[in-house]
Specification:
By secondary structure, this protein is of the alpha/beta class. It is built from twelve helices and 15 strands. The protein binds S-adenosyl-L-homocysteine and iron/sulfur cluster.
Length: about 350
């Protein structure tokens, strides 16, 4: 069990670990169920609000445990309701987690970070500029959900691993977090999306581990030459190997994959690129999420015009009906795709 300065951290504990903790401090077993509920299912800000626990027990908890180790350093709400939390872990390292809601839908989607910074170095991404700082532990990943739930008093219903970092380069802790999300928070696997830049061996591993998850792949270019110019990962795991691993996912799970394609003006957004993309994906079952480029500091790339975006989409629609343009959520608070860099926004 994780402790910080002798206090037990509750976030991320499984039911049986909570039971062990409860009996270890001489409390009756039924308290484990109550505490588990408060921790994951009935989000409250603090122990005081856990109203069906006796006063004495709440005091005891306060003396020996904390709900989580991290704290909110900044909370910003965008015009569209997207909330960007900057949180800080005990070692002083900071990372974002983002809460998104969609009009007329009850879903609340948490966009989680799996690493601080990222080693992959995609040319269009703000996280890449920080380089790789460290991996997050499963507990630290879970704390991001607990932060949101305690702050809003609402339950998160969907998870996307699309914050800072490459989830498949922190495979063990990410898959451990997924297990906790599924069993303790009871969020169905079909509501959990893992987005990867294409770490091929771990796509195979993940497919074998879990057939229910949604797999999203950041493609961003329809051929090897262009992809390696904007995504260095292409040198290590080239497109043909990536496509093979996606075929394996589709065949094994019987499910579609999501292709993410960030549209950058004059780089990967011509009708010819769209046609080439259709050809590349011929044998796959897929949806495409087009992400018009979001501006980041120190990068000259531009977002294409709306006409170019629509033209690109129309061509893709000749091959598949399931093309969406990702709504630009939270860009006014630097919370949109690719804008996360662990900084306070003034
Ligand atoms: N590391 C994972 C998870 C990040 S998800 C991955 O790369 O898939 C965030 C998505 O936003 C990815 O598809 C990423 O390529 C894309 N992205 C990064 N920078 C962006 C930017 N400036 N504008 C739009 N999309 C961007
Ligand atoms: Fe890392 Fe993803 Fe950003 Fe690429 S897009 S640098 S893989 S976080």
């Amino acid at each position: 069990m994780q402790k910080i300065s002798s206090m037990t951290v509750l976030a991320g504990l499984t039911y049986s670990e909570i039971e062990k903790f409860i009996t270890g401090i001489g409390e009756p077993e039924f308290r484990a169920k109550q505490l588990h509920q408060w921790l994951y299912k009935k989000p409250v800000a603090d122990f005081e609000h856990m109203t069906d626990l006796s006063k004495n027990f709440r005091q005891k908890l306060k003396d020996i445990a904390v709900i989580q180790s991290s704290k909110i350093v900044q909370k910003l709400t965008g015009k569209d309701g997207t909330i960007r939390y900057l949180i800080e872990y005990p070692d002083g390292k900071r990372v974002e987690t983002v809460l998104m809601s969609y009009d007329n839908r009850p879903n609340l989607t948490a966009c989680l970070s799996t690493q601080i910074g990222c080693a992959v170095g995609c040319t269009f991404c703000a996280t890449a500029r920080q380089k790789f700082i460290r991996n997050l532990t499963a507990r630290e990943i879970i704390e991001q959900i607990i932060t949101i739930q305690r702050d809003t008093g609402k339950m998160v219903t969907n998870i996307v691993f699309m914050g800072q970092g490459e989830p498949l380069l922190n495979y063990d802790e990410t898959t451990k977090a997924i297990k906790i999300i599924n069993t303790e928070l009871e969020i169905g696997m079909r509501r959990i999306t893992v987005s990867t830049c294409g770490i091929v061996p771990n796509i195979y591993k993940l497919t074998e581990l879990n057939r229910q998850l949604i797999l999203a792949v950041s493609l961003h270019a329809p051929n090897h030459e262009l992809r390696r110019k904007i995504m260095p990962v292409e040198n290590k795991y080239p497109l043909d190997e990536l496509i093979e691993s996606l075929k394996f996912f589709i065949k094994t799970t019987g499910r579609r994959i999501t292709i993410e394609y960030t549209l950058i003006d004059g780089i990967n957004d011509t009708p010819a690129h769209a046609g080439e993309l259709n050809n590349l994906l011929t044998d796959l079952k897929y949806n495409i999420n087009l992400i018009p480029f979001n501006a980041i500091e120190g990068c000259d790339f531009k977002r294409p015009s709306i006409q170019k975006i629509n033209r690109f989409k129309e061509i893709l629609e000749q091959a598949s009906k399931k093309i969406t343009v990702r709504l630009e959520k939270g860009s006014d608070v630097s919370a949109a795709c690719g804008q996360l860099a662990g900084k306070i926004i003034n």
